[in-house]
Write a structure and sequence with these properties.
The protein is an alpha+beta fold. Helices cover 31% and strands 19% of the residues. It has a five-stranded mixed sheet.
């Protein structure tokens, strides 16, 4: 339910410190390693200057962020977008901010010809899984009916 959800806007390279702070806060909240705001900001300044990586910010000052990367894919005519992160400050959750970010993300994806939006969610994160399901995401392959799994490996480990 939307309750005075703030406006959502596209972030540019100049917004890198704001995006970095929100992403750092996200990882800190969930006890996930983070390289720190300064390192993230430097990376984001470069990444947000290119069309492959985009970020959306909710609020002024920003209280929510969605970070996406796009790539070509042999199975689709348009690019596939990965929602790398979606974060809303804890004290503001449940006010429609995440939903506003998701609606803008999906609207932009349609306008940009994105064929598929992917998100990886930890199995135990039931709140996030419920949120994404509510917005039409599924972990069931529509063609096979099988549950989708995400596997990962850092190549140097």
């Amino acid at each position: 339910m939307v309750r005075d959800a703030p406006a959502v806007r596209s972030a540019g390279p100049g917004d890198a410190p704001v995006v970095a702070r929100l992403l750092h806060d996200f990882n800190t909240e969930f006890a996930t390693p983070t390289p720190g705001v300064d390192v993230l900001a430097a990376r984001l300044e470069r990444l947000l200057a290119e069309p492959v990586t985009t970020a959306l910010l909710a609020g002024d000052p920003a209280v929510g962020v969605a970070l996406l990367t796009r790539r070509p894919n042999v199975w689709y005519d348009g690019p596939v977008a990965l929602l790398d992160e979606l974060y809303v400050a804890p004290h503001l959750r449940g006010r429609g901010i995440g939903g506003a970010l998701m609606r803008r993300l999906l609207t932009d994806a349609v306008e940009e010809g994105v064929s598929l939006v992917e998100i990886n969610v930890d199995e135990g994160d039931t709140d996030a899984r419920r949120f994404y399901t509510r917005h039409g995401f599924t972990d069931i392959d529509p063609d096979s009916g099988e549950r989708a799994l995400y596997l990962q490996r850092e190549p140097n480990r």
